[in-house]
Amino acid sequence: MTMRMTGLFAGIGGIELGFKQGLGDNIETDLLCENWPEAQTVLRRQFPNAELHSDVTDLPSLPGNVDILSAGFPCTDLSQAGRTAGITGEQSGLVVHLFKLLNQHRDKGLTLPTLIIENVPNMLSLDKGTAMHFLTSELESLGYAWAYRVVDSRFTGVPQRRRRVILVASNELDPKRVLFADETGGRSDSDYAMDAFGFYWTEGRGGLGWAPDAVPTLKGGSGLGIASPPAVWVPSEEDPVRAFVTPTVSDMESLQGFPRGWTDFDYGLPPARTRGARGKMVGNAVTTRVAAWVAGRIGNPGDVVCPTVDWGQAKRWPNAAAGFDGTRERIEASEFPVLAPYEHLLEHIDVSTAPNLSARAIAGFHSRLQQGNLGWHPGFREAVAQAEDAHLLGNALGKVNK
């Protein structure tokens, strides 16, 4: 039987594409809701058979036959990189409309869909767990059992260290049999090559997001408010300038599990703004292979293999838990439920064509790096200094040649 899917806060359809990757012809997307015009363009092209609605606040109802409801509601007010206003923030507070729609659905006597929520791990600790208390209380008031797990996208094989909370709620299947039927304990360091390192070039005094053989989390903005992808250091590169490159939008799509070109459309914008919009959309998306793993387990639930442990007294919600009707269980689970074959970073980024960091970017990063106590991987600081010198020399020679 084909399941019917609806996506709220759909972005560019990462969850929906992931479910298609995981379930094939056994899933169809009927309705998508997204208010960003550029993302709407992507959804129209990539999901031509789905009804598209622009505003969750005035969506009249859910489809009557919906089986799976995804809701990757905005993390703007929950993310450490955002405003951290909490679940009541202007953007993240839109999740209340999700529960309004679910209550309307139940009041019509319709079967509630299985719910998939994705968000940032910061939601577990923000405001002493207020966001999670709100979400789980609302779910239980609808009769849902729920479970969530923090996962790292590298478990799917993509070289992006992206940690996200995946929450599954259902009144038909046990969410624990979806999220806790797989466990590996984590990846071995031997899985990672030492030929490329990802980092945030917009930082320096604070955390670099350092990641061997991976990029840190792709995101729509940065600590400096610059919408930009992270950088990659390739130590073997002989040209100091070319040793520091950034993934293209196509590379970012690949690092998120999308086919290359998923967002490559005419948005009626200048080229630079188009690249910026595409990068932001991809950075805000859900890694499709994470959704595919969830979809596979919804289609084929397994026996729970992760043990229940004492909840403890910590104010922060644990990285994995489950609950129903007022009870809560802390689950001992790693962020790597399965270990798909690892795809190395330089398999996703073509260093020969990737743009290098500009002279201004390298100079600003080097200045901030010298003011902090980070970036001490052998040879890294020296390579940054050499890149800055090479840029300066190139600029000087260019002026002379003029």
TrEMBL record:
GO biological process, one term: methylation
Classification via InterPro entries: C5-Methyltransferase (IPR050390), C5_DNA_meth_AS (IPR018117), C5_MeTfrase (IPR001525), SAM-dependent_MTases_sf (IPR029063)
Residues annotated as the enzyme's active site: 75
EC code(s) of this entry: 2.1.1.37
Methyltransferase in keyword set: yes
Catalytic reaction equation(s): a 2'-deoxycytidine in DNA + S-adenosyl-L-methionine = a 5-methyl-2'-deoxycytidine in DNA + S-adenosyl-L-homocysteine + H(+)
MF-aspect GO terms: DNA (cytosine-5-)-methyltransferase activity; DNA binding
UniProt entry keywords in alphabetical sequence: Methyltransferase, Restriction system, S-adenosyl-L-methionine, Transferase
SUPFAM superfamilies given in the database record: S-adenosyl-L-methionine-dependent methyltransferases (SSF53335)
Family, per entry: Belongs to the class I-like SAM-binding methyltransferase superfamily. C5-methyltransferase family.
Protein name: Cytosine-specific methyltransferase
Source organism of the structure: Corynebacterium wankanglinii
Gene name in the database record: dcm
